[in-house]
Specification:
The protein contains 5 helices and 5 strands. By secondary structure, the protein is α/β, with parallel strands linked by helices. The protein is globular.
């Protein structure tokens, strides 16, 4: 499983992904509430250590930034420290890695990343693969920041777990 986090200065989005990249849980919650959610998941998983944690990390591109970015950095550190208390080492995923992994272009933005996810997991399905309350789709209940948290998780999977699984297959 992958716990993917798109951090914010006050609220953060998270997605808990199964090994087939389907969604087990998701949401956008206050940062203190996310610490509680992390506690619940990590304390249940403590003996197995099956959950991998991926957090989107802020990068400097030489532009001036406001207070919100620095507040987000503080929360990234708090999420990392919270995971570390349970013996987990989160992996930082940079936005540039998401853009290249999912869209193969540094010019990608939120909407092109969303479209790349739809093309990969719900190609040809109307309503961006969300479905309806009666017939839930792959992306049922997704909103702006949850899409980005999912992108963090998928990028982590592509960069680290696909390679890990391939190594296991070829070394048998």
């Amino acid at each position: 499983m992958i716990l993917a986090i798109d951090p914010g200065n006050e609220e953060s989005a998270f997605v808990l992904l199964e090994n087939n990249l389907s969604v087990n849980d998701k949401g956008k919650v206050g940062n203190k509430e996310l610490l509680d959610i992390m506690y619940d998941y990590l304390s249940e998983d403590l003996e197995k250590h099956e959950i991998k944690i991926a957090i989107e990390m802020v990068a400097s591109y030489g532009m001036a930034v406001g207070r919100e970015v620095f507040d987000t950095c503080v929360w990234i550190g708090r999420f990392f420290q919270h995971a570390d208390r349970f013996g987990y080492t989160p992996t930082f995923i940079y936005r540039k890695d998401e853009k290249m992994d999912l869209c193969h272009s540094m010019k990608a933005n939120d909407s092109t990343i969303t479209q790349a996810l739809v093309d990969r997991f719900a190609y040809g399905v109307r309503n961006h693969g969300k479905g309806t309350k009666k017939e839930k789709g792959w992306f049922y209940g997704f909103k702006k920041d949850i899409w980005q948290a999912y992108a963090v998780g998928v990028t982590y999977f592509d960069k680290y777990l696909v390679t890990e699984n391939a190594n296991e297959i070829y070394n048998k």
